[in-house]
Amino acid sequence: MGELPIIEIAELNGYLTTTDNFNGIFSITDVDGTLSKGEKTDGYTSPVRMNALFMALVLQGEAKVSLDYVPYTLSSNSFIIIMPTHIFQVAWMTPDIKSMLLMVDKSFLDGCQPIPKISPPMMNYMRLRNNPCMTLEPEEAAHLDGCIRQLREKIGLRTHAFHKEVLQNAFSGFLLELGNIMAGKDELFVKPSLSRKEELLNSFLLLLFEHAREQHLVSFYADKLFITPQYLSLILKELTGKPANNWIDDALIIEAKVLLKMPDTTIQQVSNLLNFSDQSTFGKFFKKHLGISPTEYRKKS
Question: Which domains does the chain have, with CATH numbers?
């Protein structure tokens, strides 16, 4: 889909008040009910792309998020891994939510000690895309909680002559502990058995992730899947409750929101990037779905 705006860790840290941060490239923050507005609210945050690896351990409460248009519900003892460049959005979170969020920049990861038997499968994009969220046993969650707290202590070693190296080694150790837990989760390493309809749904989502910006017609995706547009919509409606055109429109709205968050991008440029015939058509599409114009949305963001 071409170059997309990406949110920097440093920018995100500006909104988080309880963050332990190392040079803007490695951060651990607490997420609690003070961010939830006290209720479950659809569209709680705007969709974003990150320039880093994100990992979150949910200790209490519940949240609903979407990753590349696919919804996930996180509850106590959930762990989610969000790879760079994914589209991520928080739909809602309960007031009692408590979570620990790790944000790791690529420059920090590159300096970590290689772990041949663990890191490649853990960081395999396609595997984690299909299984980004896992439910831990209470003792596993408690163990990772302790490991994260140890990482926070390492961040605090400001006067250590080899602060970065100590922190990177500690994070490599954390990955080993996480990898050990993941090794016991067979569902993360065995390709699930899918029905023909489920395979088509998965293939459609992959195509939508790749082409949402420039391809707005159901027929494009149906042709790629060698089925009719009518059958594609029937399958999606049956499995997800939404026909194909709704999925495409929702993906376009998410892409539009991401682009509109970038102040240096004009409305006309957003319209062009999303392959609308003109700015007016884009504006009408956006207002039809959100009830406000792109300009009004940008002012509120």
Answer: 9-188 (2.60.120.280), 196-300 (1.10.10.60)
